[in-house]
Design a protein that fits this description.
The complex is a heterodimer of chains A (about 500) and B (about 220).
Chain A lengths: L7 H16 L4 H29 L2 E3 L4 E3 L1 H31 L4 H23 L3 H19 L5 H33 L10 H6 L6 H19 L7 H8 L4 H27 L5 H20 L6 H22 L2 H31 L10 H4 L1 H14 L6 H15 L3 H27 L14 H19 L3 H16 L4
Antiparallel strand pairs in A: 1-2
Helix pairs in contact in A: 1-2, 1-4, 2-3, 2-4, 3-4, 3-10, 3-13, 3-19, 4-5, 5-6, 5-10, 6-8, 6-9, 8-10, 8-11, 9-12, 10-12, 10-13, 10-19, 11-12, 11-17, 12-13, 12-16, 13-15, 13-16, 13-18, 13-19, 15-17, 15-18, 16-18
Chain B lengths: L1 H21 L3 H17 L11 H30 L11 H19 L11 H20 L3 H22 L5 H29 L13
């Protein structure tokens, strides 16, 4: 018995902090501190388990229902990191909200309970090996996060929540039909009892009915793609973003969308193997990815709302990850690398823009100017984060996008290469223009009070810029090894 | 005998879909969806008996009747009474057009399902085509009705399609997953009903026309 087999302790910690919040805590402060500590511990544990995994190798636990391999541990790590950063930012955010209008213990408890339950369900999605359980947990994340959107309830946030509920429920319903079709394909096999797990399906993938698997994958890609915010099923996303409270953004953008894509990553090798690596499933992903890039490139230049702008930027980056998956080979590695880069830059951009919106009390970009003078720290964090997001050179987002370009070039897909460059350059120009206006254009008035930034927030800013810069300049060989073995799981399936 | 019953249930499901497409009163729609929910829950009882664990099937059927046939319709009826909407005015498409659409979709899915290369897997082609027809009809109701309750009912029709399909072609999920699926559905509906109440408080009506400020 090696120490990695205690991985379920992560789930246990998240679960019991939720119980603690819902039943025992009575103070506002402790209600938002407990989620922070819980995610700090689990983030540290997931690094520890990632290191341990290299010694012991992948394994199943709780019957065949859960799986730990490089791919899932990597995503567990990403989930916990985002929840940790959001937990740190939350402390400051709620202090300011409280100054403004005061929130009751009830609100705090509801928020923290949903927060923990949401994290728990995301972890279940990622660690699950059972295709049915994955679906159940994914649907649960939709239901739980609906109320995170309307923590400040007004008519617009209700509208956003309704759209989110309905669009995502239908999307997840389509994913359910896809899941059933996959289960049906497994049922004709003699080892039928193992055929509702990812590992079992992969093991017998070459005997599955290829027509049925492709049919199922269309449902799965569209269904989970809705949850991931891929165009043209993305319509809920800008609305939800424009209404949710700031700490929720990076969790939505960095983790929930990633978790939905993660499920597609699990199905991809199974479908491809059943069709004899024909590349049809990858073409579906390429189509969805490029549509997302196109929608983002068209809609970013006409935005006036800062949060909606960032929502479309999320759609762009999810599209880029999907394109990487669709290309395969080096593209898969780049897609996984981009997951992390996107997530860390999202932490930075959402928190800095959240602070700007809180300071200026508007999210209309035409009314925000002179940010650099009024809030030098958050202003420069915002500027750097936008530079990172649009892919400026030394940062790691540039590196992963460059790897995708190289993958397309190496495979001789020049049309895809051209489209990709066109999309990213269009987004580059329009986002840079908005940001320069907001950050450097002289502002109207300045109340002269110096900007106060808490030490914890400084740590988030400096830490994420440092990570983005380091990984842009130099990839640690251990990390590259780890990423390569995770990418190999998407390329060639799970081997236990 | 079993096969005939399966065909009868599929036909009744399709008829209830047509009924939902043609009815304008929310009360009637709720009765229609409750009837459909009970019908679906009976489906697992007619599965070929060698492949299934009988106790699991009975638990599943009872739970499903309770949730789809009793609890959800009760909730919906309560919220309808609360927000006092009885009749829907002006859906985006007329009722007769909707009924014709429903008939065409049902006929089309019977026709096309037979041509799919994996239909030998399903226990009865009637069930599978009823499932695909319900899926499209459910999305159609969501898209064409303005009334929020009608949209929820459209979502339920859509969810039911997944349930029928699951029973007719893949019956090997463990019980706890099936129960999880039902509970997810219940929780989803409860949240939607809470949202309807909030929306009613803010807008004083439950037509989605009021929900069109966030468009860009």
């Amino acid at each position: 018995m090696t120490s990695i087999q205690f991985i379920s302790i992560i789930i246990v910690i998240v679960f019991f902090s939720g119980i603690l919040i819902s039943l025992f805590l009575r103070e506002q402060k402790s209600l938002i501190v407990v989620p922070l500590w819980s995610s700090a511990i689990t983030a540290m544990l997931s690094i520890f388990f990632a290191v341990e995994l290299n010694k012991s190798g992948p394994f199943l636990f709780f019957g065949n229902n859960f799986i730990v391999d490089q791919l899932s541990i990597y995503h567990v790590f990403l989930v916990n990191i985002v929840f940790l950063a959001a937990g740190i930012y939350m402390q400051d955010y709620f202090a300011k909200v409280e100054e403004k209008k005061g929130a009751s213990v009830f609100h705090y408890r509801r928020f923290s309970m949903l927060w923990q339950a949401f994290q728990l369900m995301l972890l279940v999605v990622i660690l699950s090996n059972n295709i049915g359980l994955t679906w159940v947990a994914m649907e649960a994340t939709t239901i739980l996060s609906a109320f995170l959107i309307i923590s400040e309830s007004n008519s617009l946030s209700l509208e956003a929540m309704w759209k989110y509920l309905l669009v995502c429920s239908v999307g997840i319903g389509l994913a359910f039909i896809g899941t059933i079709l996959v289960a049906a394909a497994g049922r004709e096999h003699e080892a039928a009892e193992h055929m509702n797990t990812f590992s079992g399906l992969y093991e017998h993938a070459s005997n599955l009915n290829p027509a049925l698997m492709l049919f199922a994958f269309i449902f799965i890609a569209v269904g989970y793609g809705t949850k991931a915010g891929l165009a043209p099923m993305h319509t809920w996303l800008p609305d939800a973003y424009s209404q949710a409270p700031t700490p929720v953004f990076p969790v939505f953008s960095g983790v929930m969308l990633n978790a939905a894509l993660f499920v597609i990553m699990r199905y991809l090798p199974i479908v491809e193997a059943s069709m004899g690596e024909s590349g049809d499933a990858r073409s579906i992903l390429l189509l969805l990815g490029f549509l997302s890039l196109l929608f983002a490139a068209v809609f970013i230049p006409i935005q006036h709302d800062l949060k909606r702008l960032l929502a479309y930027s999320s759609i762009e980056h999810i599209g880029i990850i999907t394109i990487g998956l669709g290309l395969g080979g080096l593209g898969t590695l780049a897609a996984l690398f981009h997951c992390m880069n996107n997530l860390i830059s999202k932490i930075l951009v959402f928190f800095s823009s959240g602070s700007i919106i809180q300071e200026y009390k508007t999210d209309d970009m035409r009314k925000i100017s002179g940010v650099m003078k009024r809030m030098p720290v958050w202003g420069s964090a915002f500027f750097v984060s936008v530079l990172v997001l649009i892919g400026v050179a030394p940062f790691s987002v540039f590196m992963s996008e460059f790897m995708i370009v190289r993958a397309a070039f190496r495979q001789g897909r020049y049309l895809l290469f051209g489209l990709f460059m066109l999309g990213t350059i269009a987004i580059f120009i329009s986002m840079l223009k908005y940001t320069l206006d907001m950050v450097f254009k002289p502002g109207l008035e300045d109340d002269g009070s110096p900007e106060k930034v808490r030490l914890s927030n400084m740590i988030i800013i400096i830490g994420s810029i440092a990570v983005l810069l380091t990984f842009g300049l130099w990839m640690p060989p251990q990390f590259l090894d780890f990423l390569e073995s995770a990418a190999a799981i998407i390329e060639t399936g799970i081997k236990i | 005998m079993q096969n005939n019953l399966l065909i009868l249930i599929s036909l009744l499901i399709i008829l209830s879909n047509i009924f939902l497409l043609g009815s304008s009163r929310t009360g009637a729609m709720i009765r229609g969806i409750a009837f459909q929910g009970v019908l679906l829950s009976l489906l697992p009882l007619f599965l070929p008996s060698e492949s299934v664990r009988i106790l699991d099937i009975i638990i599943l059927a009872v739970l499903s009747i309770a949730i789809k046939g009793v609890i959800i319709p009760h909730y919906l009826r309560k919220v309808t009474r609360n927000i006092r909407t009885k009749k829907e005015l002006h859906p985006y498409l007329g009722y007769s057009v909707s009924v014709i659409f429903g008939l065409l979709v049902s006929y089309g899915s019977f026709y096309f399902i037979g041509k799919l290369p994996f239909m030998y897997l399903s226990i009865s082609p009637f069930n599978t085509s009823a499932a695909f027809a319900s899926m499209i009809i459910g999305m159609f109701i969501i898209a064409t009705r303005r009334n929020i309750i009608a949209q929820i009912i459209g979502y339920l029709v859509f969810e039911n399609a997944g349930f029928i399909l699951g029973i007719s072609i893949a019956s090997s999920q463990p019980l706890f997953i099936e129960i999880g699926i039902l509970l997810d559905l219940l929780a989803g509906i409860v949240i939607m009903v809470v949202a309807v109440n909030h929306i009613h408080l803010y807008f004083d009506n439950v037509n989605t026309d009021s929900l069109e400020r966030l468009n860009k």
